[in-house]
Amino acid sequence: MAWIEAHGHGGDMLTAASVFGLEGRAFLDFSANINPLGPPPRVMELLRDQLSAIVHYPDPSQRLLKEKLAEKLHISSEHLVIGNGAAECMALILLALQPKKVGIVNPCFSEYAQLATAFGAQVVSCEGRWERHYQPDLPDLFQLLSEADLVFIGHPNNPTGVVYTKEELTRIAEQAAKTNTYLVVDEAFLDFLPRSEQVTLLPNLNMYRHVILVRSMTKFYAIPGLRLGYAIAHPELIGQMKGKQVTWSVNQLALVAGEACLEEHGYEEKTIGLVREQREYLKQQLEELGLFVFPGQANFLLVRLQNGRTAADVQWDMGRRGVLIRSCAMYPGLTVDDFRIAVRTKEENDQLLHVLKEIL
């Protein structure tokens, strides 16, 4: 059976088309966690209007986008670096800080370990506990901080969706300061949470010169093909990261899209409301099918089969019917019974549930 995560991520339409014999556009994709509303309409209009701008170089300092983003976040632009997706920001962190040991908490986004290894660091880890839905006990995380030069944590974590409390984040940041460890908090999915639940160290970041927040605009604004993300940190760290960045790594159309996205407001609230409503709906329906759904937040669900079939089996049967899900067997700490699905619109979610019922 072919492995459609051959390149380590979901949303690989080319591989799926090759494996299942369908055109990429024919798939209903639940394997990538992208806003189901698609890009804001205004963004699409501006991209069409700005196509002629590709004959010019983009601003290498991303000044207009940086100014708008700083205003939205209530920080100085000196605290920001804009990247070609959140992944580039993570790469810049590793290139700038040159950690010899990088800590991760399994299960987690595979790019943490892949980037660390690619840049010559040794990867050390601690394991999330089943009793805490794969979040680590703080003593275990504190031990990891003492062993590593830099530690990645996901908040919400991918693929589990679990989040830390403000008290936990504060304690982790304070412990990282004691061990002289850089702490990278991946907040790529934080925007999908209701405003009142978007817990972050951002308001107190001046207290933590060793903390870096990484965020994505790719997922929330549904522009993964353009690639856009950013990191927030002390200006000294930002300067080190920018010193490692390739000139013009963020293209002109991505900058135009990012500026337009930051002017959206109704779209943001509509997205948060849709995800919250449909996440609960999907969870309830999946549990009625006899599946275990892990508690968590954000725009995806981690699901465990309990009927003897593996996630790869179900993924194969669903893929042949034009629906893609993400097998989680490759995540250290998870099992062959685990898969992840994105939260999409009611109509799309019902299609997924219909196919899943047929298969199970």
From TrEMBL:
Arranged from A to Z, the UniProt key words for this protein are: Cobalamin biosynthesis, Lyase, Pyridoxal phosphate
Catalysed reaction, written as an equation: O-phospho-L-threonine + H(+) = (R)-1-aminopropan-2-yl phosphate + CO2
Q: What is its EC number?
A: 4.1.1.81
Per the record, the pathway is: Cofactor biosynthesis; adenosylcobalamin biosynthesis
> Which cofactor is recorded for it?
pyridoxal 5'-phosphate
Reported function: Decarboxylates L-threonine-O-3-phosphate to yield (R)-1-amino-2-propanol O-2-phosphate, the precursor for the linkage between the nucleotide loop and the corrin ring in cobalamin.
Domain of life, source organism:
Bacteria
Signal peptide annotation? none
Would the keyword Signal be found if you checked this record's keyword annotation?
no
Species name: Ectobacillus funiculus
Name-wise, this protein is threonine-phosphate decarboxylase
Give one Pfam hit by family name: Aminotran_1_2
Output the PANTHER family linked to this UniProt entry: HISTIDINOL-PHOSPHATE AMINOTRANSFERASE-RELATED (PTHR42885), THREONINE-PHOSPHATE DECARBOXYLASE (PTHR42885:SF1)
Q: Name one GO molecular function term.
A: threonine-phosphate decarboxylase activity
Where does the Aminotransferase class I/classII large domain lie?
28-355
Q: What is the lineage of its organism?
A: Bacteria, Bacillati, Bacillota, Bacilli, Bacillales
Q: Which InterPro entries match?
A: Aminotransferase_I/II_large (IPR004839), CobD (IPR005860), NHTrfase_class1_PyrdxlP-BS (IPR004838), PyrdxlP-dep_Trfase (IPR015424), PyrdxlP-dep_Trfase_major (IPR015421), PyrdxlP-dep_Trfase_small (IPR015422)
Q: Give the first-level EC class, as a single word.
A: lyase
